[in-house]
Amino acid sequence: MSKYAYGPVASRRLGRSLGVDLVPMKTCNLNCVYCQLGPTAQTTMVRADYAPAAEVVADVRQRILKGPEPDFITLGGSGEPTLHRSFGSIAANIAELTDVPIALLTNGMLFYLPEVRAATAPVNLVLPSLDAGDEETFRAINRPHAGLTLEMLVSGLEALRDEFLGQIWLEVFIVEGLNTSDEQIDRISACIERIRPDRIQLNTAVRPPAESYVQPASMDRLEEICTRLGPGAEIIASGRQYHVVEGAEGRLEDVLEMIRRRPCTVDDVADGLGISRSAAIRDLRRLLDDGTVHIRQRRFDTYYEATKDS
After folding, report:
1. CA 65 remoteness from chain centre
2. What is the pTM of this model?
3. The domain defined by 245-310 carries CATH number 2.60.40.1500
4. Class of 5-240 per CATH?
């Protein structure tokens, strides 16, 4: 079983994404109320080699050989990947293995540090987040580690834009009642003007969030916000459709790896692993039967989550 690489998983933003987990579960400097991985028990600013770089790269190599070929290799996973102080060299070594583009899925909080910005050089695409236009809302939604501020986030992303040669796709996560007012959206827009991302992608709470009070914005409101943010904004689609990979078979360990990283629907499993929907259902039923996963309902969708002991 792979320790650091997982999937590919079906991503609304990246298609079929091969995930690379660089830090232990919920090692993060934020405790976002909407996080699909649950609350951060203790935020941290410690940058360390949480996973041996050589082992991570070897794991990715095996995943690439195993297939199916992903659309992106994504540094992200169970926490904030830039807390791994060697994420840049890991990305550079992965780039030597394959022509598949490398994405960095990050909260963007550490880009105020020059060494973190410099480490993004081997990466093709950076996907940071901005969920607030003022300090009060930033603290309510993102619940940062002591000493971190919204200005540090925005100025760091502004500096990254000046230095980074690849694409920046900025996610704005909309939480009903917290950042949905016209005033808040205008303040977010002013921050976006400083950051100058290539894309602005609106998201909302579809998967089960860390806090039960978090509710998704309506599609009508998302469309209004999209218009307010201008022509560079888009609502993230619900998912891409993939052809089943010929000869691919679901393996319980692969399915479980996906679900350990984030809650998944049947379609997430099928699309990510390139298997038929019936094969995904069969494997999920086996995992349910042995108590490895459990079901959690989120509005109209059924998600499968790993149990704590799995």
Report:
1. 24
2. 0.81
3. no
4. alpha beta
Q: Of 172, 146, 143, 147, whose CA–CA distance to 157 is shortest?
A: 172
Please give the Cα distance from 83 to 69 (Å, whole number): 27
**What is the Cα Rg of the chain in Å?**
19
pLDDT tens digit sequence for 99-148: 999 999 999 999 999 999 999 999 999 999 999 999 999 999 999 999 99
310 pLDDT band, cuts 50/70/90, is: low
Tokens of 95: 């780039």
Which pLDDT tens digit goes with each residue over 162-212? 999 999 999 999 999 999 999 999 999 999 999 999 999 999 988 778 998
CATH 3.20.20.70 domain extents, the chain: 5-240
Nearest alpha carbon to residue 11 among 122, 119, 117, 169? 169
Q: Which amino acid is at 159?
A: A
DSSP E strands: which ranges in the chain? 5-11, 15-21, 72-76, 102-105, 125-127, 167-174, 199-204, 233-235, 293-298, 301-306
